[in-house]
Request: fold
Amino acid sequence: MKKIEEIKELAKWCLNCKAKPCSKTGCPMNTEIPEFIEKIKADEYEAAYKILMDNNIFSYVCSLVCPQEEQCEGSCIRGIKQTPTKIGELEKFIHEWAQENKIEYQLSQMPKSGKKVAIIGSGPAGIECAIELLKNGYDVTIFEKDEMPGGILWYGIPDFRLPKEIVETIIQRLKTMGATIKTGMELGKDIFLSSLKQEYDAVFLAIGAMTSMMYSLHDTKLENVYASDVFLKAYNEKQFLKNLGKVVVIGGGNVAMDAARTAIRMGAKEVQILYRRDETHMPARKIELEEAIEDGVKFIPLTRVISANVEKEKIVSVNCIKTEIIEGKAVDIANTEFRVEANTVVFAIGLKPEKSLLEKEGIQLNDWGMIEIDENGMTNLENVFAGGDATESKSTVCRALAAGKRAAKGIMEKV
Reply:
């Protein structure tokens, strides 16, 4: 934890401007950023903690994993001509201070309304929706397909970025508030919208984007080719994958950085990230790339992986071609093919919703294969709402939280 003197200096940088773009346009959860920073300036740390938690019980999580440079800090007025206020560091400090000083936050709840809501999926969107509904007297049952609740927070983001005890605290708070959590319950297999709609007043779909985007590297099925979600889940479940050898991660987002750093921790001999664009055009946060490189990961930009070379049914290398950026697109450069030694390949080029499952359940999708929702988060089905990765292609934890909060508001207005 940073020293209080350092934090006070960081807090002074905030202008407490009237426009508050950091809160109003930068933060998907509309956190009262200048307000909590003013409390830091006044040495009122518990009051700052209350401001953060009143708005968002995932505030600590957001301070650790949010792309602040794109969201709150990216909207800071001081950042136009100078460096922006270090909002993420200030938020993180407040939570560390509260933890160190054993400050307990109490959520108040309204009397029971008699209304029941089913939530499918226990990632950020699902939990946030549940919290808002529980606060307002609704009964909530969460259905989760995996063994542990938490979604991407538990199975996707590795513990070196987000300690599991922080997630456990949120799950425990959810249970304390009265949520019923049923694990091992998968949509389309164990539960169906048609039956849930009969039993519950509303349903919120927070299933995330469950299908990994991959492409064929060889005309035979290969071992040691993984989707990023499967790879990260194995690490988070402490089921370390063996004999990784030399690992190639295809992709340039934060998930690619996580997968590469995870491979190092699972004993890979060498890890390289091959990305078809350059660093300027990559979606990963700069700090995530820097930390990956510090861990020993090699980053090779402007490189597209074409196929794999196989000996005795095992990958020995991948065929690549150099690219250049023309009008924002990665274009192959003729006669620049080369090989990179590899024994394991991890695809981290994105996830998409499971189209056939959703269509079978009667959910309407848009042209991009995402769940179509209105401004309140409602789908084409009456009283069935959705939010998170299944509804937007470039969601973040904070955007998923905002979607959960918006859907809860929509549910409360409707039922």
